[in-house]
Amino acid sequence: MRRLRHNFGxxxxxxxxxxxQPLIVKRGSGLGALVILMLSALGWSSLQVTDAAATxxxxxxxxxxxxxxxxxxxxxxxxxxxxxxxxxxxxxxxxRDVTEYLVAKLTSANLSAGSVNIEPNRVKDFYRLWPxxxxxxxxxxxxxxxxxxxxxxxxxxxxxxxxxxxPSGLYSFxxxxxxxxxxxxxxxxxxxAWGAFILRVFDxxxxxxxxxxxxxxxxxxxxxxxxxxxxxxxxAEEKAELKRRIxxxxxxxxxxxxxETHLFAAPLP
Length: 269
Description:
By secondary structure, the chain is an alpha+beta fold. The protein has helices at residues 15-20, 31-41, 51-54, 94-108, 140-152, 236-261; strands at residues 5-7, 10-12, 59-64, 69-75, 83-88, 112-115, 127-130, 135-138, 157-162, 165-168, 171-174, 178-185, 188-195, 197-203, 209-215. 28% of the residues lie in helices and 30% in strands. It is globular.
């Protein structure tokens, strides 16, 4: 398979090859379709670990860089019906849950795996805020430190989950990673807890990307939960339920995305 070059949001593939590449996950319309459309616009597609690369995998380090930001959004037919807000939820520890789930999956597939300790860094240190747009970009120099940390901790392969990207001129900004959305039209309303990410696999020594796949939001509804314009209006029980459903969706998407990498074909060291 022809290698895909992806430089934190800027992707280059030949037009002929782009036409040959299938969609990664066949989902329903709506949020998942929007993410697929966005990734297609970037020329993005899944990339699998080759058999030759898999034979060199000995110990896999896992890092999740999704962050602590919960994004709530209400969408109507007109601009007057658009509302959204962000709130930090570090107590949810989404990155820890994603990392532990990935490590467990790798271990159950007879791979030696563990969590890469990124301290003294924090997840938010891997992003830079661009004040003019009030949007975040991934800090490539900081990201490169992951290879040094992984190598020092004895890992030869690195698995990373990062946010999806929004193309914007010469630069690419990271999208919201998880949250709760409501869409209303013609008197009907649908609500959904969701998450979205890109999963990448790297060789630590060469820093070469071996595989990537996308976590596409499934079209599942959560109409039993009310969308509220203020996060503090949710009860502790409602917040816990939103967290549970987001984690559930992310795990399901990890299962689908990880199967695209063929990393499980790697032998036990």
